[in-house]
Amino acid sequence: MCPPTHFGVTYSINPWMHVGKPVDADLAVHQWETLRDLYLSFGHEVELIDPVPGLPDMVFTANGATVADGRVLMAKFRHEERAAEADAFRAWFAQRSFREVRDPERINEGEGDLLVDGGIVLAGTGFRTDIEAHEEVRRFFGRPVITLNLADPRFYHLDTALAVLGHGQIMYYPAAFSSASRDVLAALYPDAIIATDADAEVFGLNAVSDGRNVVLPQPATHLIGELRKRGFQPHGVDISELLKAGGAVKCCTLELRGAKPSGVHE
Ligand code: ARG
Hints:
Blueprint: H1 25-41, E1 65-68, E2 71-74, H2 80-83, H3 85-94, E3 100-102, E4 114-117, E5 120-125, H4 132-141, E6 145-149, E7 162-166, E8 169-172, H5 179-188, E9 193-194, H6 197-201, E10 208-209, E11 213-217, H7 221-229, E12 233-237, H8 240-243
Parallel strand pairs: 2-3, 5-6, 8-9, 11-12
Antiparallel strand pairs: 1-2, 4-5, 7-8, 10-11
The structure holds arginine.
């Protein structure tokens, strides 16, 4: 995670960002700290990257890389405004001993578009990540990659439209996908939780699950009910300030899969 010390909406690269709309910086920090404390209360370890002045979206660490089996594929950002974040994330990983840290050839925005579900990777494209990056992901991680086409600019990253819950379950918003991708998802996940328009519009799918606890924006009340019905423990959080940049819970969280605890990475 990255503290939102320099957070703000100083440019607009997605439909949620309105330059000039005030952001309460203290509230953003408070909301982010609440999220971090929640992860700690579940017994998870949280590692931090230092925020860089002039990079207001750096709080959205999910976009910095994709990590599986202790191997790291770095991000390459679509927009110039975020390009320098890649260097900061690369430096962070380089200072730790992950098994491999790879620079990408094609544009990919990390876990914004690349969601690991057990042995496979669900990969979004259409707005940010190049479709050609999906093949790179397949080669690097040696896992099957399922390409999913995003069709609604409000849901520009896969993690705004779909969340991996664990135990082979997902929740998603069908209207965010092309009709062919909707068919793929329906075939792969016939029992998925289907988000309503209202769930999706409050970023309810921008959620983090550890297989038991699911953290998501608290206005996503329908999803919270569905998760509870299926035996998950949902935790609604107020993430209003970060939403002004088009990000929520998952965006603030990069999962270090296969990393050794306490900063010792093999
Ligand atoms: N303002 C950021 C952007 O548009 C938000 C990124 C949200 N991150 C995410 N994983 N969806 O790039």
